[in-house]
């Protein structure tokens, strides 16, 4: 095996397209130069369609978590109340950030693998009139569940005056998001998922309603002070040093996304999701998420006692050079997760399915060779 | 001119060595993989000599400012007192971060171009017994002044129980730093200066004394919570997503630094400083910093009314493909600054000096062609 041919089928980071690698390789330029300012401003503007906003998209040097925190520290003050929808590990992270700053958190928890529905949220908010922000996770990476953000936004709008703040880290750029139309106030995401970049950048967009709140509040942190980013962005720059090589890459990613077109990108991800799910079903491996709430970017499988997911992952990696993800927290060692996102196409899904079949045989688990591949191929044929 | 041959002679970002570019180009790997953990832990350990510490060095996805903020939010609480040594734009940044969190700031200000001396600090601290942390800038990039950190540390130790926290962003890796021996409690730096990387990483090391304080305090922020980094680092990882491609590059930077050796690196920078200063003197361009406090990594020149520094910079860039820096804040348009740091060697100094001479002639300023180059060559000859 060629060590440098390792195939990433985890839900981020995703493989970097060669032309993006190439773009990041450009000679360094000063981040206060006009050349960089022009690139930065135009690239930020090109991100708007993926958020579904006519407002500014801010580019931050930091991880997705830094953007989650940014959405908290600019909109709330200690002692104020927030509702956090917790359907897995990343919903819980929002809660922890809020608690760090002394914000009163109301958790709406559902079992891992389930989605937060509009009905549940409506009931939950009914007796909490003081909630000033509702935090939700679009794609819960830890379980492969995609929460119904559009419907949840409607509930928030109808039932409260709270801001609706969404972590879209592991799906934005691969799924529909119309924050202006749906009434979502803040959307954050990261670079290493559907945006096909290395880790290191986060993106955030805020609604007019959100800005009205932000303008009234004192930011609780410094590096993540959104008003400082807005002020600098008016001059096509950032308050603190931006990650220049990643922005070079991002501009090339925008070229790729525009060439394919967002509707086609969304369809490709839905197709890969349907292929993966059909394959796992054909291999008798139970899926964690219901069809209705299945993430377009990552599929979680729960083999129960049929085989050890960690053994499967080991063989996949050592014998077939493909990396898939395991479970997090209480699901560690119990599930496996297949990423199908970003620089990934239907033939790649066939490849990972074939490798899973082989690996299952190698660890002595029952698996009909080719059965999963065939099921996925059939799904693909209905789309060509 | 070849657009991609633009030469950066600004005090960061500095040019990226081709072998580091190459290293950053490696295929993406999972940041929770054992492969990355091993690389991350060993690379962090290789940074220790540049800080002069036997303790851990933490690697953060963020700009230098994020690390400055990290040093504040883990060591102080609102209402507590700090002394901030302000000798330019970056000293002032420490003060602003402290004030954002409600920390009481005592500023020790000196005119831009001067250093904070041990005597001044001793007098300043004498009537401020409640100060819990003293913040200083090692190299003040905005003026080209290098503050005498070793002597300042001694004063802090003798006169108070405060922590001594140092911003070494624009010099660490190019100058001596022995934080353990000198009694410095926290040192922070960034990736895009002497470490020859793109922007996007920051490094921080803390003393045992600092950790005793940190362990007693509640962190004021989330992403920058140092205790979370320590906990994850014990497992060779980070609490939030690290910037993987930059860490690939950093490992290769460590190879380069170790091949040259720190004493030789320090000598090279001192030589480039002395060459640059001799050249400017030969061209009758006044220097901002005194010899005793001149930065090894950046030289600031104040031409008074002899010529317009902005015109010089424009011609240098448009005709000679070399970028130097202008002034910041009240020195904007009044000074120019030459970076000689990182992937830069004595012959590069001769090149930028030659280009400055040409440009001065092109803007009608008096300059003897070759005079600056010759002065720099003479300095170089005494070292070979």
Task: Give structural notes.
Two copies of one chain form a homodimer. The first copy, chain A, is an alpha/beta fold and 384 residues long. Chain A has two domains: 132 residues, Alpha-Beta Complex (Aspartate Aminotransferase, domain 1); 241 residues, 3-Layer(aba) Sandwich (Aspartate Aminotransferase, domain 2), CATH 3.40.640. Helix content of chain A is 43%, strand content 16%. In chain A, helix 8 links the parallel strand 8 and strand 9. The longest helix of chain A has 21 residues. At the A-B interface, helix 4, helix 5 and helix 11 of A face helix 4, helix 5 and helix 11 of B. Chains A, B: One of its GO terms (biological process) is glycine biosynthetic process, by transamination of glyoxylate.
Give the key terms.
43% helix; 7-stranded mixed beta sheet; Aspartate Aminotransferase, domain 2; globular; 15 helices; alpha/beta; 384 residues; Aspartate Aminotransferase, domain 1
């Amino acid at each position: 095996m060629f060590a440098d041919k390792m195939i990433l089928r985890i839900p981020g980071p995703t493989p970097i397209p060669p032309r993006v690698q190439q773009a990041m390789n450009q000679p360094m330029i000063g981040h206060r130069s006009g050349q960089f300012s022009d690139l930065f401003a135009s690239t930020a503007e090109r991100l708007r369609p993926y958020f579904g906003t006519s407002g500014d998209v801010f580019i931050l040097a930091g991880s997705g978590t830094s953007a989650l925190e940014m959405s908290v520290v600019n909109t709330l003050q200690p002692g104020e109340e927030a509702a956090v929808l917790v359907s897995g590990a990343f919903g819980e992270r929002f809660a922890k950030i809020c608690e760090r700053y002394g914000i009163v958190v109301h958790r709406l928890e559902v079992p891992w693998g389930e989605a937060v529905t509009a009905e549940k949220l409506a009931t939950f908010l009914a007796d909490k009139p003081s909630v000033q922000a509702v935090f939700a996770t679009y794609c819960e990476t830890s379980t492969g569940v995609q929460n119904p953000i559009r419907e949840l936004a409607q509930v928030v709008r109808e039932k409260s005056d709270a801001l609706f703040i969404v972590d879209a880290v592991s799906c934005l750029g691969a799924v529909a998001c119309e924050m202006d139309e749906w009434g979502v106030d803040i959307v954050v995401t990261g670079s290493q998922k559907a945006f096909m970049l290395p880790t290191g950048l986060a993106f955030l967009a805020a609604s007019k309603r959100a800005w009205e709140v932000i303008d009234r509040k004192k930011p609780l942190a410094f590096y993540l002070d959104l008003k400082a980013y807005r002020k600098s962005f008016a001059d096509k720059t950032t308050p603190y040093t931006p990650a220049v090589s990643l922005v070079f890459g991002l501009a090339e990613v925008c070229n790729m996304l525009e060439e394919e077109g967002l509707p086609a990108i969304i369809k490709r991800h839905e197709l890969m999701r349907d292929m993966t799910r059909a394959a796992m079903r054909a291999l008798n491996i139970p899926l964690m998420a219901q069809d209705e709430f299945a993430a377009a970017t990552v599929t979680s499988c729960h083999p129960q006692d049929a085989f050890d997911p960690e053994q499967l992952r080991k063989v996949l990696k050592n014998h077939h050079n493909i990396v898939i993800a395991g479970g997090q927290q209480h699901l560690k060692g119990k599930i496996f997760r297949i990423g199908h996102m970003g620089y990934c196409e239907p033939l790649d899904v066939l490849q990972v399915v074939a490798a899973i079949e082989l690996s299952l045989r190698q660890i002595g688990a029952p698996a009909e060779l080719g059965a999963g591949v065939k099921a996925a191929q059939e799904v693909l044929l209905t789309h060509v």
